[in-house]
Amino acid sequence: MFGPFDFGVIIHNLPYLFKVGMTFTLTLTALAIVLGVFFGTLLAMMRLSSFKALSLFATGYINLMRSVPLVLVIFWFYFLVPYIGAWIIGASQPVQVGAFMSSVITFSMFEAAYYAEIMRAGIQSVPRGQVWAGYALGLNYWQTMAKIVLPQAFRNMLPILLTQTIIMFQDTSLVYVLSVTDFLGAASKIAERDGRFVEMYVFAALVYFVVCIAGSFLVRRLQRRIAIVR
Amino acid sequence: MNYHWNWKIFWQLTPEGTGTYLHTLLVGLMWTLATALAAWIIALVLGAIVGVIRTTPSKWAARLGNGYVELFRNIPLLVQMFLWYFVFPEFLPKAMGDAIKQMPPPWASFVPAVLCLGTFTAARVAEQVRAGIQALPRGQQMAGTALGLTLPQTYRYVLLPVAFRIILPPLTSEFLNIIKNSSVALTIGVIELTAAARAMQEFSFQVFEAFTAATIIYVVVNVGVVFAMRWLEKRVAVPGFIGPAVQGGGH
């Protein structure tokens, strides 16, 4: 650690870093986007619903998730999911779900609260007349939502949804607290094994930086294109 | 579900013998608040400076400010935490780096955690400060110049007093974020609230009581901050100058 820096350690471990680590990070991010947007949209619809109970539940859930740290939520789900699993399948012992499943559920449910607020703004950005037009055409609530409101809401909110996704890509590094081998977990395991903290963490920072900068550059381009079309 | 609930656990003594479990959690809360407040001072000062230079006419200063924001926003907080803890002391002169590493606990992890959270949040504060200044009508700065004020004077007496009032709501959410983000410091050994709950869970095996208590404490702190900031917003409001709130995102 005190000797001159040895950047060979990065080259030697590239396959491990990317094949194991980055694959985990990207899979987790992708699954959490899909499930998070799905549940987030449902939550947003509940929050805007005229049924008081639904909207109260959604509001409570969103506010709760937004006021506790992600690290605590990761711990919560890591211990809670085995019990919920046991309850669902009626087992008497907590079910072993593993760190990966637990991370996917955590990030989906946590990000759903953030996506929900974005989708709520998106739904509200669609003029009320569109909804009335849908009803006037004889569509029911779900048809109006699926065919008229949500497509426009997604489109309006796409840049913000993607920005939130970049933030989530960074936040997945926090699964480190479950000793999972995501990209940072892989880097940290090598750092500790070989005592190469400086090289590994600087490299990890560089990779995250490049991915996120490229991502935000693409989002900005998309934003400009959308702005012109609208 | 055969989980054995025991809510009386909070009044039991910990095996370390330093007090009850409730005491452990409250000490954790103290470290959470200490980390967040110390980092918030850095974030406000540094964020204001970076935010201001991004709006100055000087091209290279603006570029420097933009670079700072991009750098700190595009690296995960946890990685930054490791950089401050493991990497930063290596790049200092040897004596200074060793001095930092050999500080007695908890300072050896508290100081890097504060520096990390402070510089990380400064980038986000800078973004808000820039947005706040740019939300002001251009005429404000021209009026300042026309009155014979220098550029620093224009910022000090004309632009910043109003800009800071406009961005109070997003600053509130940044402050809430810094409290939540301080939990990341547990990875480098700061025993803040989440770490305290985790320690309580490991010693007592009462997982859900420990996490429920931590969750409630976080929610109460959140609500407290929101009310305090609402009061502050009313205190400092200038009639007719309630600008549109600049939205803060992320977490």
Q: Gap between N and C termini of chain B, in Å?
A: 33 Å
Instruction: Count every helix of chain B, treating DSSP H or I runs of 4 or more residues as helices.
Output: 10
Number of domains of chain A: 1
Helix content of chain B: over 70%
Euclidean distance between termini CA atoms of chain A: 55 Å
- Largest interface, C-beta within 8 A: A-B, 43 and 42 residues
Principal-axes geometry of chain B comes out as globular
Give a short account of the largest sheet of chain A. Answer: none
Question: Taking all residues together, what is the mean pLDDT of chain B?
Answer: 89
CATH homolog superfamily of chain A: MetI-like
**For this structure, what is the CATH class of chain B?**
Mainly Alpha
**How would you describe the oligomerization state of the chains in this entry?**
heterodimer
Order of helices and strands of chain B: HHHHHHHHHH
CATH class of chain A: Mainly Alpha
According to DSSP, the number of beta strands of chain A is 0
Counted by DSSP, the helix tally of chain A is 9
Characterize the structure shown.
The complex is a heterodimer of chains A (230) and B (251). Chain A contains 9 helices and no strands. By secondary structure, chain A is mainly α. Chain A has a single domain, classed as MetI-like fold (Orthogonal Bundle), CATH 1.10.3720. The mean pLDDT of chain A is 90. The two termini of chain B are 33 Å apart. Residues 243-249 of chain B have low confidence and may be disordered. In chain B, 70% of the residues lie in helices and 0% in strands. Chain B has a single domain (11-236), classed as MetI-like fold, CATH 1.10.3720. With 251 residues, chain B is mainly α. The A-B interface holds A 1, 64, 66-72, 75-76, 79-80, 83, 86-87, 92-93, 114, 160, 163-164, 167, 170-171, 173-174, 176-177, 184, 188, 191, 197-198, 201-202, 204-205, 208-209, 212-213, 216 and B 1-3, 70-71, 73-80, 82-83, 86-87, 90, 176, 180-184, 186-187, 194, 197-198, 201, 207-208, 211, 214-215, 218-219, 222-223, 249-251.
